[in-house]
Amino acid sequence: MTGMSVSRLDATRQQALSVSLATGAYAISFGALSVAAGLDIWQTMALSLLVFSGGSQFAFVGVLGAGGTAAAAVATSTFLGLRNGFYGVGLAPVLRPMRGLRRVWASQVTIDESTAVALAQPPEDVEARRAGFWWTGVGVFVAWNAVTVVGALLGSRIGDPAQWGLDAAAAAAFLGLLWPRLASRPAQAVAAASAVVALLLTPVLPSGLPILAAALVAVIAGWPAPEDVEAVPE
Amino acid sequence: MSEYMLMWVAIVVAGVLAWATKYAGHVVPETWLENPRVHRIAAYVTVALLAALFAVQAFTAGSDVVLDARVAAVAVAAVLLWRKAPFIVVVFVAAGVAAGLRLLGWG
Questions:
Q1: pLDDT score for A152
Q2: How many CA within 13 A on the CB side of residue B5?
């Protein structure tokens, strides 16, 4: 390996590390919110280890916190994780060939951040793309799970979650996850329509179902071919 | 089954489904998912669910639509996101705004 390529991969690893720390930091809010929603510390840790996808985890405890059933929590968490499946499709050419345990582990760390860092490296530089994926995926996994414990411990020490604004923190977390996906007009329209549908259905459907019903907005919006292909979000 | 055990089952099922979704992406032939309609809907599902989760978390209590301290908190969060503040800052400031307003006796 030449000196040049070492420093090139160093830059990728540095990027992976900073993304890992920044992402790991907000596991503190997940840990606290999960305990506030009624899960214990072990269950909170299990969610971070097993589900390992921020949006899905916030959704799981968010649905429970709003009084939804366990089934609604699982369904919402799973639908929100569907995008990770599409990340795997995009990453497969970068990570190939891969089998057995390595593929099992690569799947677990296929998330927003590892995909973004991998695909942000030059397309012709497969080595850097692989380094970006693995360093970010494993880095976020370690940071996310470690900081989840801290958040859960903090959450279990405070009395009324609302007094500390944890309900508002959860809303801000969803807004923060949504924000980067609102670049295009159609995405903004889908977001607005989904929010309205969920609020309109809240008084009439059991908790958790208004959120799932909003997914129908996505099906209706995505069904017809758009006139402007560029307008479809990634 | 006790509530507590049911929750454990739900956590494990959610974990298995999350992993299976990720795994499927790595192993299915690319052509299966080349359908542009599937891609569009998948992208919109993420936006739709996050928007719905945000709305319910920010503006409802039980089965009622309510406006309380959370409205001010998410408005501040939106401004911070617009100014490109880091995620963790946005979350903490939102909590602080809601906690502060409630301390003052509003919402």
A1: 96
A2: 2
Query: B53 and B84 share a domain?
Result: no
B8 and B22 both lie in a single domain: yes
Instruction: Provide the residue ranges of all domains of chain A, joining segments of one domain with +.
Output: 3-181, 183-234
Alpha carbon of B8: minimum distance to chain A alpha carbons (Å): 7
Q: B89 to chain A: which residues are within 8 Å by CB? A: none
Nearest CB to B25; choose among A26, A73, A110: A110
The total number of structural domains that make up chain B: 3
Q: Are residues B88 and B106 located together in one domain of the fold? A: yes
> Each residue of A127-174: pLDDT tens digit?
999 999 999 999 999 999 999 999 999 999 987 888 889 899 989 989
Q: CA B11, CA B15: separation in Å to the nearest integer?
A: 6
Q: What is the pTM of this model?
A: 0.85
Residue A22 has pLDDT above 80, yes or no: yes
* B64: phi then psi, degrees, rounded to nearest 5: -110, 145
Residue owning tokens 């949006």: A55
Q: Report yes or no: A54 and A177 within 8 Å, Cβ to Cβ.
A: yes
Other beta carbons less than 10 A from residue A101's beta carbon: 7
Q: Does one domain contain both B28 and B39?
A: no
B78 shares a domain with B103: yes
Q: Could you list the residue range(s) of the whole structural domain that residue B47 is in?
A: 35-65
Instruction: Give me the residues paired with residue B61 across strands.
Output: B64
